[in-house]
Amino acid sequence: MSKSKQNLIIVESPAKAKTISRFLGSNYRVESSYGHVRDLPKSKLGIDIEHDFQPSYIIPRKNQKNVTKLKKLTQKSSKLILATDEDREGEAIAWHLKEVLIPKDQEEALPVERIAFHEITQTAIENALKSPRDINLNLVWAQQARRILDRLVGYLLSPFLWEKMFKGLSAGRVQSVALRLIVDREKEREQFKPQEYWTIAADLLSSSQQPFQAELFQINNKLLDKLAISNQNDAQKIVQDLKNASWQIINISEKLVEKSPLPPFITSTLQQEAWKRLNFSAKQTMTLAQKLYEGVDFGEGPIGLITYMRTDSVTLSEEALNKAKEVITQTLSTQYYCRRQFKNKSRLAQEAHEAIRPTNPALSPYQLKGKIDNNLFKLYNLIWQRFIASQMAPLKTKRLIVEVEAKSEANKYLFKSIGSQIVFDGFSKIYPIKLQEIQLPPLKAKEPLQLVKINPTQHFTEPPARYSEATLIKTLEEYGIGRPSTYATIISILKERRYVERDEHKRFMPSDVGLMVDNILRTHFPQIVDIGFTAKIEEELDEIAEGKKTWVTVVKNFYEPFKSNLDQKYGEVAKMNMTEETNEICEKCGAKMVVKYGKYGKFLACSNFPQCRNTKSLNANQNTHQICPKCGQGEIIIKKTKKRGKIFYGCSRWPECDYASWIKPEELKNKTDED
After folding, report:
1. Phi-psi region of 623 (alpha: psi -120 to 50; beta: other; left: phi over 0)
2. Domain CATH for 228
3. In the chain, how long is the greatest CA-to-CA distance?
C-alpha cells in the first residue's frame, strides 16, 4: 500500500512552522521559505526600464538549497497551501513561492490555496484551512511597486552621491525624508531664540491654618498668556502690589473628570510605547514581537502569544472582547469592565484584521514571568496590559478648582489652585499612567486668606525637542510617510549610514555627513525629500492595493521626471571638496594633515596620500581643558568607541584612571551644580 500524499503548508519562518505543526495532524507537512525566496539582484538594477519596469527576480544563492527542497516536496504533495503573513509583504512571498514552485504546465495538476490568519492558535489555523482564497494580486503589485520605486531611487541616486561626495553614501525614497525631518528640527533648534517669562505663585494660609499654593492667571479681567509677564521688573511690580492686597476665596467648584483608556496597540503605537516605557528600539520591538507572534516555548511546546504585529487596525474580534470581559470581571469586578470597540483612523486599515493583542488573554504576564526571556516578558506584559485596559472603565478623578482674588488699591488679581484626587482607578489599575494627586486643605467660599509668601519664578521658552525614536515614528505616521512595518528599517538605516547621532538623551541629531547629504538632496532633488510628495506616493501605493491604479503607471509617473532631473544634475553639479586644511603636521612624513570625510565621519589624513597613508581620529586626544572629576589629576579628552565611532569623554591618565562618560564635561558640571 502506497503512502498517501501530504498537504504542504509553507510559511516564512522555521519558528512559525514549528508552532503551526503542533496543531495539525499527519496529513500536513509545514515548511519554511526563510523569508523571500526571490528578490532583485544586488549586483545590478534588475529592472527593465524599456519594458514597463519589469523586474528581473532571481533566487539568491543562500536560498537556492531550500528552494530545491521545497520544489521536491511540492511535487510529492497533494496540495500546496501558502500560509504567509496577511500583509502586502506576506502576499508577495506567497506569489513568489507559487511562481517558483509550480511550473506553468503543472498549474492545473496541483491545487494551490492561500490562507491567512492573524494569530497562530489552533482555532485560527483550523478556520483558515476551512476558508482558503486566491492570492490577492493587488497587494502583490503594491508591494512590487514599492520595491521597484525604492530600488530606482537607491540604485540611481546613491552613485550620484558617490561621484559628487564620497563612496559609502546612500539615498532612499523614505529614509531621505526621515533624515530631512531630523535636519529641519535641528535647524529649528539652532535658530531658536529663548524668550524670558515669569510666573507668580502665592503661598496662602486658610482659616484651618493649612497652607496651599495658587498661581496667578488673570489681572483686571485679562487672562494672562504664557509670555504676559516678560521680565523681572514687571514681575517685581506685581509682587510689590500683591503684598498690600487683601486675599479671599471667591469661588470653589468641583468637577468629575473621566479619562478613558487608549485603544489596543497597532504597529506604530507599540513601537512608540515600547520606546517610552521599556527603552526598546523600534527594531528590537519588532524582533521581539515577531517571536511572540510566531511562538514561544515555556514548557508545553511553542505557542503564539500575540496576534500579528504588523497592523493598522484597532479592531477587536468578538471572541477577544468576550475573553477580556472574563479576565476583568473574574480577577477584579464588574465595575472595572467597560466594553469598547475602537474606530480605525487609517483608510486602509482592514476591519478583518485585528489590533495587537494576546492570543489568550487569560494567560497573564504573571504566569510567564521567569519562564521566558525577560525582554519577551516585558513586551508581552505591555501588550497584555494595554489590551485588557482598553476594555476597562475610565479612570475617574475629582478636580477641585479654587479661585482666589487678591485686591489691591489699583488692581484685581485672580489666582487659581487645582486639587486632584482619584476616586476610581479604573483602567490604570492594569495599565499605570502618570497622574499626580494634589490634596488641598478644607476651604470655603468667601473665606479670607493670609498671604505667607509670593514666589516669582523666571522661565525661558525651550526649543523644540529633538526626535526620539518614538516621536520620529509618530511624525512619520502623521505625515503618511512609509508604513508602520517599515519604520524600524528606516531608523536602522539612518543609524547604520551614520547620518544621525544620539545626544545624551538618546535623541537624534544629524551628523556632519547627514547634514551634507540632506543639503545636496534638498538642493538638487527637492521632490525626493518633499514630505507631501512622498506621502502622495504612499497614497498611490495604497490605491494599487485597492485595485484603483496600476503599478506600472505609478512607477512610470515617478521615474520619468526623476531620471530626467538626475541626468541633468550629473552635468550641473560639481564634485564637492571634501577636505579641510589644518595646521597639524603628519608625524610620519612631515606633510600637512587634512580633514577628510568617510563612512564613520570626519578623520585626519595625510595630504601626501597615496605616498603616505597616515590617518587618525579627528578627535583623538582632543583636550576639553576640564579636570577629571574622578582622579582630579588628569584632564578630560574626547575619545571615540572603536566599533561604532561614538564619541565619549575619558580621562587623559587612562589606564591609571578609568573615568568615562557619555555626557559632555560642561553639561555634567551644570547638572552637578543644579543638584
Report:
1. beta
2. 2.70.20.10
3. 110
Residues 6+ apart with CB under 8 A from 65: none
- The range of the structural domain enclosing residue 20 comes to 7-135
pLDDT at residue 492 in the model: 93
By the 10 Å C-beta count (0-12 exposed, 13-18 middle, 19+ buried), 661 is classed as middle
Q: Which three cell numbers stand for residue 627?
A: 579636570
What is the spatial distance between Cα 34 and Cα 82, in angstroms, rounded to a whole number? 13
User: Is residue 516 a contact partner of residue 498, using CB atoms and an 8 Å limit?
Assistant: no
Domain termination residue (choose one: 390, 420, 450): 390
Active site residues: 308
Q: Which of 521, 537, 572 is the last residue of a domain?
A: 572
Helix (H) or strand (E) holding 526: none
DSSP assignment, residue 396? Answer: E
Residue in the structure block whose three cell numbers are 519604520: 487
SS3 219: strand
Residue 145 has pLDDT above 80, yes or no: yes
Rounded CA separation 322/265 (Å): 18
The radius of gyration computed from the CA coordinates of the chain, to the nearest angstrom, equals: 31
Tell me the CA distances in angstroms from 237 to 23, 317, 380, 531, one per residue in order. Answer: 78, 63, 57, 48
Phi-psi region of 375 (alpha: psi -120 to 50; beta: other; left: phi over 0): alpha
Smallest Cα–Cα separation from 599: which of 493, 499, 489? Answer: 499
Dump pLDDT digits (tens) for 200-253: 999 999 988 899 999 999 999 999 999 999 999 999 999 999 999 999 999 999
Stretch (H or E) spanning 609: none
Q: Are 392 and 338 in contact (CB under 8 A)?
A: yes
Q: Which residues pair with 265 in a beta bridge?
A: 356
Counts of helices then strands in the chain (DSSP H, E) = 18, 25
CA distance 303 to 450: 66
Q: Are residues 111 and 254 in the same domain?
A: no
* All three cell numbers of 572: 550641473
Say if strands 500-502 and 296-297 run parallel, antiparallel, or are unpaired.
unpaired
Supply 515's cell numbers.
547634514
Residue 1 falls inside a structural domain: no
Q: Which of the residue ranges 414-418, 522-526, 595-599, 609-613 would you say has the lowest mean pLDDT?
A: 595-599
Closest CA to 665 of 651, 644, 675: 651
